[in-house]
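Hey L., structure's done. Input below.
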Amino acid sequence: MQSSYWETHRELFTTDLLVVGSGFTGLCAGRFARDTSQSMRIAVVDQQRYGQSLASTRNAGFACFGSPTEILYDINHEGAEQAFSRVQRRYEGIQMWLDMFPGQDFEYSADGGLEVFQEDERHIYENALDHLSLLNQEFRRHINRQEVFSEGKGISQALPLAINIAGEAGLHPGKLHSCLMESVRNEGIQIISGISIPPPSEWIKEKGLWHIPTASGLILAEYVLLANNAGLSELDDDTVPGRGQVILTEPFNHGLPSGTYHAREGYMYFRTLGKRILLGGGRDAFREQEESLIPLGTEDVNQYLQNYLTTHVCPGQVVSLDQHWAGVMAFSKRHGKSLLVKNIDEKVLTVGRMGGMGVAIAPKAAQDAIHQLLS
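Output:
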């Protein structure tokens, strides 16, 4: 609908803290803000429909901290301290979820993970094996876990090589999101859907409050946290969206052990979902096309994923597809997976650009952002 004069020329509501984005980060931010003050008025708004987000409810459901080749790539490009600091943040975030909610409520299943390799990737595999001792040593130092990585067994003739990842898990991101929404509502925090927030250049500061015009009316807020991840690409020239497409099979006898699987430095990933297989990725093969904010799957990526499934994961098996969807992540153009947390004006902070690991990073990132914004 077009907005009416009556809608746009009114105060919709006034709040002490406005959080833009009702994904994992935004909702966690509201929850942590409530911990700082029981009297603070807090509202979380999102342009998506209630219960939906561009990434939090549209990902593959991995609770992971990094495969060996991904971490080795990060070490080579950013240095060991930066790479393992990120691993620690991911691990701490996963533990925060388990502290917030019973794991069974969001189907947390720590079946372990596997990074798999093709025969023509043997040199990459052997290089990773050569570094497992170093990786395990650093994991003990940063997250106090013993022997996370070990030599594994391949899953097919097309993927004959593997490295075990102990402690990795899968979860149901939709159920986790619902748990989080319920806990936030129980804290007296408003969650309002269908509201698109314009860029800060269109806001006006009057008497200590930001006046933010929307198609539904004027929102007044003292503090604003922009936690809309890929949406921050419209404000930050170093942030680029990255669409992630996922396919889900009909139930069949796939024969894979329960768990999560990584391939090609994390650009391909799949997991068991009972008798189904969920598989996603392929951004490296469609890089320019997938730098999109449009959460719609495309036929070319769909076919690419199906081909990988039937030639590498389940060769020789007849597989029927049930669903295909897309989510939108955010990455740094110049700094890879670096988290974006910065003040863009007085009492306005951004937090996002999760580098494809928002499930793991969101709670810790939200906690740190709220501390920075409100202190």
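The chain has a mean pLDDT of 96. The chain has three domains: 5-58+187-237+336-374, 62-169, 243-256+264-332.

-- N.
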